[in-house]
What does this fold into?
Amino acid sequence: MRSIQTPMPPSDTTNDAATTFLDPSHRRQTARTRLGPQGVVAPNMEIPMNYQSSTGSNATLAPIKPGPVQPKPRMIVPRDAAVALSVDVVIFDVDGIIADTAERHADSWRRIAFEEGLDFDDALADSLRGLSRAASLKMILGDREVAPEEFTELMERKNRYYVASLETLSPSDVLPGISRLMRQFAAMNVKCAAASASKNARLVLDRIGLVEEFDAIVDGNEVGRPKPAPDLFARAAARLRVKPDRCVVIEDAAAGIAAARAAGMRCIGIGDADRLYAATLVLPTLEEMEARLLIEMLDAASH
It folds into this structure.
């Protein structure tokens, strides 16, 4: 069993940069090259965000006190199969990548919007992926102004709805391909971390039976700035004592891709290539992907 460090006190912080980054007017059309049926390669580019000055040095922005590390049992890779890898750590987002929880979040926000007489559609639900609770509520409210007390109450009400929906969550909600990929990465001595803006990420991982399978878990309780700030991913790298350029992030949200880039990490987007255009590599799914092939495709897309 791995030792899991005690999370910091909760803090919910709005982030105007998230809204700015997600504004369609800031997006650029880019040429993409198909890499067979596996997916799409999207070239690296500058991201219009306030965090471009943030690089891998953010790994020290929230110092982690080193403690005794319990080594994770690893399978031995046969000598003839061993190759030099460009990745030491794979950082998985939780909602929509590890667990099928994205719709539960959307349904909880949809209920809030209905109760408050606010508009809510699939496009808005999609734009909330990867954002903190406060940033999501701010987007849902739009031009409506509410008192701080009401804002807090709406966030707490949404969280109650979402946590209640997790009662039925089980290992069957692990998304296809994830468990196999994690086993393959472990066999290659590549560590796995989970990093999510959600403050319920550990609860989700516990319900689906994966909380002990990660070398590190970082959630919204531990950092002050949500995505697209790099804090979540930088903290995961710092906790595992790995340089950011040796990490790859797997995300399904534009804000998460921006956060990975700001942290100085390569990133794999899962989903719509038009929405995740800034990722190093974009794939429609991980369902039939093999770990070594995934790294080879990432390396090819990085050059």
Notes: Confidence is low (pLDDT under 50) at residues 1-69, 71-83. Residues 28-100+173-302 form a domain with the Rossmann fold fold (CATH 3.40.50.1000).
